[in-house]
Amino acid sequence: MKRSKIVKRLLLGGLSAGALGACTPGVSATRVTTESHYPNDEHIPGAGYYHAPFRGFFAFPYNHYDATRKMYFYGGQWGPTPHRSIVNISAPTPEAAAAAQAVRTDNTQVRRSGFGSTSHSHFTSS
Predict the structure, then answer these.
(1) Which of 7, 74, 87, 104 could form a disulfide with 53 if both were Cys (CB 3.0 to 4.6 A apart)?
(2) Residue 82: exposed, middle, or buried by beta-carbon count in 10 A (0-12, 13-18, 19+)?
(3) d(CA 72, CA 61)
(4) What is the pLDDT of residue 124?
């Protein structure tokens, strides 16, 4: 059976993209500070969703609708209608930045070294 060169290239390209992507620091490696500006609903792993009008991080996205409660979540509270604001980007308050960074430091730092156990193989003969 003949193997296609395109398939080999795709497999190698996917492997190299995954390996290089794992080495590139992303948002999760960035510190949360009052100098950082975040768009509304930006999700920061470990900190939550940023609500720009309220300058803080919360467990649910901005204007998240809960069908059970029949209410919308914004800025740490529930309301009967979605919150409306012209603010769509802002910097967190000093308290929100410190709290978000404190929560993130222990839970979101992923240490990577090589390919882990995926490069090992085990053979059992019968």
Answers:
(1) 87
(2) middle
(3) 10
(4) 58
Burial class (CB in 10 A: 0-12, 13-18, 19+), 83: middle
Q: Convert the pLDDT of each residue in 67-79 to its tens digit.
A: 999 999 999 999 9
**Closest residue by Cα to residue 57 from 71, 41, 36:** 41
Q: What is the pLDDT of residues 29-47, one digit of tens each?
A: 578 999 999 999 999 998 9
Query: Three-class SS of residue 101?
Result: helix
The residue count of the chain comes to 126
State pTM to two decimals.
0.60
Reduced to 3 states (helix: H, G, I; strand: E, B; else coil), residue 92 is coil
- Token pair, residue 78, equals 């529930």
Residue environment code for 100-114, b if the CB has 16+ CB neighbours within 10 A, otherwise e: bbebbeeeeeeeeee
Given a cut of 70, whether residue 14 has pLDDT beyond it is no
